[in-house]
Amino acid sequence: MFSVTVREHLMIAHSFRGEVFGPAQRLHGATYLVDATFRRAELDADNIVVDIGLATKELAGVVAAYNYRNLDEEPDFAGVNTSTEYLAKVVADRLAERVHAGALGEGARGLAGITVTLHESHIAWASYERAL
Amino acid sequence: MFSVTVREHLMIAHSFRGEVFGPAQRLHGATYLVDATFRRAELDADNIVVDIGLATKELAGVVAAYNYRNLDEEPDFAGVNTSTEYLAKVVADRLAERVHAGALGEGARGLAGITVTLHESHIAWASYERAL
Amino acid sequence: MFSVTVREHLMIAHSFRGEVFGPAQRLHGATYLVDATFRRAELDADNIVVDIGLATKELAGVVAAYNYRNLDEEPDFAGVNTSTEYLAKVVADRLAERVHAGALGEGARGLAGITVTLHESHIAWASYERAL
Amino acid sequence: MFSVTVREHLMIAHSFRGEVFGPAQRLHGATYLVDATFRRAELDADNIVVDIGLATKELAGVVAAYNYRNLDEEPDFAGVNTSTEYLAKVVADRLAERVHAGALGEGARGLAGITVTLHESHIAWASYERAL
Amino acid sequence: MFSVTVREHLMIAHSFRGEVFGPAQRLHGATYLVDATFRRAELDADNIVVDIGLATKELAGVVAAYNYRNLDEEPDFAGVNTSTEYLAKVVADRLAERVHAGALGEGARGLAGITVTLHESHIAWASYERAL
Amino acid sequence: MFSVTVREHLMIAHSFRGEVFGPAQRLHGATYLVDATFRRAELDADNIVVDIGLATKELAGVVAAYNYRNLDEEPDFAGVNTSTEYLAKVVADRLAERVHAGALGEGARGLAGITVTLHESHIAWASYERAL
User: Fold this and answer.
1) What domains appear along chain E, each with residue ranges and CATH number?
2) Nearest by CB to B68, which of F12, F28, F123?
3) Would the pTM count as exceeding 0.95?
4) DSSP assignment of chain E, as one string?
5) Which ranges form a coiled coil (chains A, B, C, D, E, F) (predicted)?
6) ipTM, interface predicted TM-score of the complex
7) What is the per-residue pLDDT across B5-23, written as a single tens digit (0 to 9) for each?
8) Cβ pair D122:E30 closer than 8 A
């Protein structure tokens, strides 16, 4: 199994609802390092997993939709706790849509899966892994 | 599949028995960066994998039992080579006990597995992965 | 010249005023890795720059005052752009007050200076350096 | 499942053929951080996955064969795009040959698999995973 | 003293002349992580050291002039050993020209100095520091 | 001013004397990442600060003298608290001796200074800087 990973980052404000979150129930924020991993069993005709230029561009596009925003005010996230693990799924699902729409190139239709990891600090990170 | 990882560190002395260890047969020591990853298929009612505050607290508790110690003198490790990979298993098993005892919260009973990675330097690390 | 550095982190929301900030004029947030460096010409009687336990505790105390907050609503920062470089100065000045008040131990009165670095992402960071 | 990883690095020149590579079709180069992970279900009689000294030595040997070279002129790679993901497979396959030849010790014959990750920058990396 | 640092990267081929370089006399290559630090004594009217957006754009522009190239064939470097430390100076001097030309904004004319660090691997890096 | 830095690591056991050290008064250990920085105002005839091969070899030699040892039993450190900051000075002084003895090459006699940084974990490090 082969994989390729590209990294972006995302700076947002948000708050959480639920006692489990303690002081993070207040409006605060985070920088997320966003790592998107694309997997497949065999390389394509160019000997690659995915066009790394397109992968970087599409990941940047997904991230840009939320960058420099207060997630509490985003309609997509109404009534949702935008935890690191949940946001990893959001990024992975958006990337999957772009793969299926052909935005990562025709060769990318051979991708088997995507994993997205969001690092919220040097001591905590979360991942979501899905098939394509 | 979702996961959340938290990082702690551990500073210990120890020695190894067996020619394969070369100069590491002498009493020496290590700083281990300890990454504990908790996995589950679905998020809980708070939209998280595990309470990251409790996960951090319990990992710190597991690490504290061995921190600033000479492992050669710990009864738990009598006659055992406390290799990085072995210590990864020790930390994972101790965390599993705490999950089963409810120390990571009721929601954590839905966890599917734990992986622990110990970095012994910038050029070597080891992991142990288990189900819950 | 000797120095010792300890790392903490800080998660806040804020916004900027001024066209130079572009999309960062919107309410967003950041995780800052906060590195505090303490400098002196000679080691103290214990052969150290500063008690690393106290340094860590006091840095954590300084950071806790702003952690999980919206800096736009903090009276300390009314009418101020809380840029990364400005926040580095805030942390350094708060630490200097604590050094002068004896919170880092009597030996710490021999410190010559403090540098604080805040990393806002893997590709951008800022520092402030001052004498004591 | 246990694993041990060791890190080396490799500095090479090469070029790519195919429009997908854009400016990387020109002769350029890369530093690859090369992480080799060895996996097995149970530890051996010394309580380890593999002799980390031998693992480091053999990874260095594999890397040395290509280090400080122009891959475009290496007979092994004639007509091949030496992408990061492809090179990860090359390193993994060379390590597998050495495991099978006994170069990583008799105990290493119990290894279940190898994963090799090549980091081409702080924002892009690729992996190849195989059984032994 | 305040500073702000931004990071880019650069992938090039080159070779060295001189026995001191050993195997690096062959055509090979490197990924350089390029950190550009801008320093000044006081913040500007926006409470910043430099417009981080412009700093990032101009550093990217400086790097782009050499990216994906064989430095042995660049007229700028004819007869020159393009060592990591030398390239750090090249990047710093190009940035200084851009500061003086106003490309980093009018406020950037108040900058006191620039330091550029190039990381050639996880175990080696070089810097050049200059006044403005 | 130019500089070049190379990284090694060191794994030792030791203990501290003095209440300030708390639990670190017990026999424990550490992995130190050891960064040695060599500085000079002008590059030498080969366009470098120092032969990076020799710098790496000599740093490794300095580190090897203490690697895999219990510093409490080293005659060099009898009655001394081997704090991270103190060990940074030890490494810097040993390197300075080697520079003066010509072990880093004739060109290295032009070096102006050395800084050594020891990282004891991902959240704490110490440095010592000296002239040559």
Assistant:
1) 2-131 (3.30.479.10)
2) F28
3) yes
4) -EEEEEEEEEEEEE---SGGGGGGGSSEEEEEEEEEEEEESS--TTS-SS-HHHHHHHHHHHHHTTTTEEGGG-GGGTT----HHHHHHHHHHHHHHHHHTTTT-GGGGG--EEEEEEEEETTEEEEEEEE-
5) none
6) 0.96
7) 999 999 999 999 999 999 9
8) no
